[in-house]
Amino acid sequence: MPNTIEFCHAIPVMPALDLSKAIAFYEQQLGFIKKFVYDDYVGISRGSVEVHLWLCNDPQIPENTSCRINVKNIEELYEEYWRANVIHPNGKLVVKPWGLKEFVILDLNRNAIHFAETVL
């Protein structure tokens, strides 16, 4: 019997201490668009990437949460986010030994988001 299972895509689910402030940050600073709000759960997107946010009351959770979003034209995105002043001080654009050019931002809840582009 052939295996018909296909993984389609992943959606990061990030904690947020204040959903209204988080939505505003993602829209105004990162260029995302709100897709839906359902009680304490929010969906946002930019291009074909979707991120979900859930209301969290423990600040240690977002401080220990991260995800990576692969993009095209990373230099252009880096410049956009540099102008928005959201680049992590230790997250400048670099080429990693595993073949990715990447940089890191912290959202207002201190979730780390790695943006990357394959360079191999």
Describe this entry's structure for a reader.
This protein has 120 residues and is of the alpha/beta class. It has a single domain (13-118), classed as 2,3-Dihydroxybiphenyl 1,2-Dioxygenase, domain 1 (Roll). It has three helices and eight strands. It has helices spanning 19-28, 60-63, 74-83, and strands at 13-16, 33-38, 41-46, 49-55, 66-70, 94-95, 100-106, 112-118. It has a four-stranded mixed sheet, covered by helices on one side. A four-stranded mixed sheet has the order 5-8-7-6, covered by helices on one side. A hairpin with a 2-residue loop joins β3 and β4.
At a glance:
It comes from Phormidium nigroviride PCC 7112. The chain has 120 residues and is α/β, with parallel strands linked by helices.
Low-pLDDT residue spans: none
- Average pLDDT score: 96
Question: In CATH terms, what is the fold-level topology?
Answer: 2,3-Dihydroxybiphenyl 1,2-Dioxygenase, domain 1
Major sheet details: 4 strands, mixed
Rg over alpha carbons: 15 Å
Give the count of structural domains.
1
Largest sheet, spatial ordering of strands: 1-4-3-2
Q: What is the SS-derived class?
A: alpha/beta
Protein name: Bleomycin resistance protein
Keywords: Antibiotic resistance, Dioxygenase, Oxidoreductase
Family: Belongs to the bleomycin resistance protein family.
GO molecular function: dioxygenase activity
